[in-house]
User: What shape does this take?
Amino acid sequence: ALYSPAPYIPQAIGIGIGRVLKLSPLAVFYLARLFNFIAWVSIVFFAIKTMPVKKWLFLILALTPMSVHIASSASADALLNALSFLFIALTFKMAYNENTPLNGRNLFLLTLVAVGIAFSKNIYVLLLGLFFIIPFHKSGSKKQHLKNVLTVFGTALLAFVVSSLIISHLMHQISPIES
Assistant: This one.
């Protein structure tokens, strides 16, 4: 495996249920797709609900044909796209909603989503730069804001490095087929 198993959790649950029910391989595959779609819908719904501005734009982006196609597949990209929507929504909520401070609960949620993104596909770590639209006063002070930035980025960077090292190690284990 060249990717982290984290974005395959919804599909794995569907496959596990299909195996317990002793369904055919095709039915198990469709159950994996169904669970992936349910996870995507749940996370995107929460993201749209959380988004303080341009909810309709978020809905339209989520319902583009390619987005729905990926969401209803067994691909790991469905969870990655949903987590990206959620990270953007949480960041915008903290940046534009005056009643939403950057407290421990919100910071934990942002960090958790950032780690999920980092485990899914490494290049999406660049999306975390959106964190910088959150004003300093949301953290209480510039020093606390710097700690918050280091928490989110440090944890995501650690997940990114661990994921990269595992993939690199696995790649060195694979020997090319000689003809």
Notes: The chain is about 70% helix and 0% strand. Residues 142-173 form the longest helix (32 residues). The chain has a mean pLDDT of 87.
